[in-house]
Amino acid sequence: MTAETSQTLDRGLRVLKLLADTDHGLTVTELSHKLGVNRTVVYRLLATLEQHALVRRDLGGRARVGLGVLGLGRQVHPLVREAAMPALRALAEDIGATAHLTLVDGAEALAVAVVEPTWTDYHVAYRAGFRHPLERGAAGKAILAARRPPRPTGEDAETPGYTLTHGELEAGACGAAAPLLGVTGVEGSVGVVMLADVVPERVGERVMHAAREVAEALR
């Protein structure tokens, strides 16, 4: 550190970089060890960064990069949508259902990009900016499922790689979503929502494929 630099700002930026390099977040204790400072300093840094939505903490106390980082550059959010659009458009047209890219915003799921199919007689109206709790709906539940450690082979299996729900956000609508994996600093999912009693069998695999395409575009 030189006389012209700020130690506090330097530590805050290091916190953001550390959080950006992990998919599962870091605890206060882990950040304290990595920064070489006491926990009180880390608490203050996180509290300040949270005020600016640059960091968020989940119910378990793990800190992650917040969506506020997108606001640091006016073109970042549009670029995320732009990168996801080809895969979402292909998914919507293929399945005949509304496709969406959803990101974590605190304890909520936030739809940041939505594509509706062009050829169907009817479909679910779902708009960018729509929010719902992570615990409800396929998009949020897929994100939460990705946070859990994988179960050993042979144990009771959940549907591998994707999540299905019915009627949790809108009566008569069902959804399928798969998490974005391997994108540093981004927690989200790709999914579809449709008016149906059950999700057709092929939709789960198709949603997983779209999530992989979006993840590749965002890396």
TrEMBL record:
Gene3D superfamilies given in the database record: 3.30.450.40, Winged helix-like DNA-binding domain superfamily/Winged helix DNA-binding domain (1.10.10.10)
Chain ranges of the HTH iclR-type domain: 6-67
PROSITE patterns documented for this protein: HTH_ICLR, ICLR_ED
Domain IclR-ED: 68-219
A Pfam family per the record: IclR_C
SMART domains to which the protein is assigned, alphabetical: HTH_ICLR
Keyword annotations of the record: DNA-binding, Transcription, Transcription regulation
InterPro entries to which the protein is assigned, alphabetical: ArsR-like_HTH (IPR011991), GAF-like_dom_sf (IPR029016), HTH_MetabolicPath_Reg (IPR050707), Tscrpt_reg_IclR_C (IPR014757), Tscrpt_reg_IclR_N (IPR005471), WH-like_DNA-bd_sf (IPR036388), WH_DNA-bd_sf (IPR036390)
Segments passing through the bilayer: none
Listed name of the protein: IclR family transcriptional regulator
